[in-house]
Every structure is written in structure tokens, then in C-alpha cells.
Amino acid sequence: MREFKGRVIAEGTVSAEAVVSHDGLNTLASFQKALQFGDKTATCGDQNNKDLYGKQMAGKALCLPQTIGSTTGGLVLYCACSMNRQPACMLFSKPIDSLAAAGAILADVWLDNATMPVIDNLGEEFLAYVKDGMMITVKEDGVVIVE
Description:
Helices cover 27% and strands 26% of the residues. It contains four helices and ten strands. By secondary structure, the protein is an alpha/beta fold. The model has no long low-confidence stretch (mean pLDDT 96). Helix 1 (27-36) packs parallel to helix 2 and helix 2 runs parallel beside helix 3. The radius of gyration is 13 Å and the shape is globular. The longest helix has 13 residues, at 98-110.
């Protein structure tokens, strides 16, 4: 078990199974099936992300370095939350980009029934340590416990 401390972007506490990407997350390509075609498990559709492609993201602790892609990134995250197809939490080893942060914050503020804690700046050690299937617990103060 290890603990990591990051910066809280969207508050909340959650425990969930880890799904890990060592590549950046293209939010539009990854969530397109969930948003347009009714995939309630939010199976990653980004063929360029070898770590996540074909894996369920909804309800999982999504561990990644950063998001990549277009200006739709924040809107995609917001829409995933509004449709209840969001990850249980998003955990970034690097600083979150402003578009992804905007989507997570707006979902946190505007949506009553959607929770998706977001923590960034967890460091490279976090991403090197966490593996698919490990249990992640996120606490309100930005502490992330990996078991």
C-alpha cells in the first residue's frame, strides 16, 4: 500500500478499481461510444491508446499522466458525467490541463447526481506504482491510497 498526495480539482471521496494509461487520454476518442452510441460502460474507443483501448472506464479509477486532444475535452467529461458514464475518479500524475479541469469542475458544480473526484500533481512515482486492478481510495484532502 502506498499513499500519494495531489491537488484537489473536484472534491469527493471514492474507492474504485484502477485502470491505468501511460499515454495521454484523448477524451473525445475515448468516450465517443459512450456519448453517441449508448455504451453505458464507457469502453475506451481510442485505438491510439494501447493501455486503455477496449477497457471499461465508467466507475473505474482512471489513472493517467494528462489529457490530450481538442477543445472538446472539458465538454466530453461534463457530458459523460451528465449521462452517468464517468470514471469513478480521474487521477493525474501531471498538472491537469485547463479544458479537462473546466469539464470536471462544471460537472461538480452543476450536476447534482454526478460525482467524479479529480486529483492532479500526483507525480511520476504514482503512475509508475499503480497497475490495472489495484484498489484506489481517494480522500477529500487529495490523498490517494493505492492497494
